[in-house]
Design brief:
Blueprint lengths: L2 H7 L4 H18 L6 H8 L3 H8 L2 H12 L12 H10 L3 H20 L1 H29 L12 H16 L5 H15 L7
Helix pairs in contact: 2-3, 2-5, 5-8, 6-10, 7-8, 9-10
Length: 200
Amino acid sequence: MTEVATARRSRITPAREAELYGAVLDLLREVGYDALTMDAVATRTRSSKATLYRQWGGKAELVVKAVRHDKHAEIGSIDTGSLRGDLHALVSREDDCTMAQNSALMRGLAMALHQNPDLRQAFREQLVEPETAEFRRLLQRAVDRGEIRADRPALEFLVHMMVGGVATRTLLDDQPPTRDFLLSYIDAVVLPALGVDPTS
């Protein structure tokens, strides 16, 4: 990238970027991914479409970066000294209201992911792959501490279990995920599958 292009991209301040991402998420909740347009984002944020395209390239990248920005903490920043503590801290970083909003948002995006290859690619590259790598590091610390065995079969399925707990709460129980539900799910399902006694 040229120095001029870099300078152009750096004009948006962190506060302005956060404002833009918040507006994108609001629009997503209001109209869904397919009906969201760069025109609507530009109008809502009093920006020019040219600025939006120059900064983010297109709708898919803008939406995925907005979702990533909305996360309150990186998984890799959590290190309580135990696997149970790490997973509980991960769940506890959001309150029930935020969980319900994010769950609804992700359900809406899940439909769009199947129909939009550019969104699916951006989602995988910027969210799925980095978070999966962070979960692997979290698990590796637990292995290094001697909490779990490196050959435990369920190690490969931690992300699936965590996502499944959130997704099936609404599908099966017709309720949004809550902190209490997910903490209980971790203790009753995830940790035993990994060979960890949640009471120890």
